[in-house]
Amino acid sequence: MLIINLMGLGLIILIIWWFWLYKPKSTEVSVENDNSEITVVVDAGVYQPAYISSPENKALSINFIRKDASPCAATVIFPDFDISADLPLNKSLVVELPAMDKGEYAFHCQMKMYSGTVVVK
Q: Contact 7/14 with Cβ under 8 angstroms?
């Protein structure tokens, strides 16, 4: 009985770590002044790149390519702009963001398992 309880507790800890505490390694990409488009691949539980740096007061086009068949990967949400887009599997979809002030703007799936940030400098 004690072994089963310990295994259950271990499984609970693993679930909490995986869904809320684990932060996968990701790269940061800067969008240069004359280039306002970037490609983000949705695969293996992450957005790649997950951190996008962009200049202030510049619109940004993010081309999402979804390679992950998970239902959670099917939607990307930009809550600060009230933008939500359904991502087709193995096809690209462009999400247009308006010119932004300095700050950080999060994007994620509907359950926040996939997450990323647009940092405007």
A: no
pTM to 2 decimals? 0.74
Task: Classify residue 112: in a domain, yes or no.
Answer: yes
On the question of a cis peptide bond just before residue 79, with omega within 30 degrees of 0, the verdict is no
Total number of domains constituting the chain: 1
Return d(Cα 111, Cα 117) in angstroms, integer: 16
C-alpha to C-alpha distance for 30 and 33, rounded to whole angstroms: 9
Residue 29: C-alpha distances to residues 7, 36, 49, 93, 109 (Å): 41, 12, 7, 19, 20
- Torsion of Cα atoms, 18 then 20 then 26 then 31, to 10°: 150
Tell me whether residue 4 is in a domain.
no
Per-residue model confidence as pLDDT tens digits over 57-75: 888 899 999 998 989 899 9
Query: Do residues 41 and 90 make contact, with C-beta atoms less than 8 angstroms apart?
Result: no
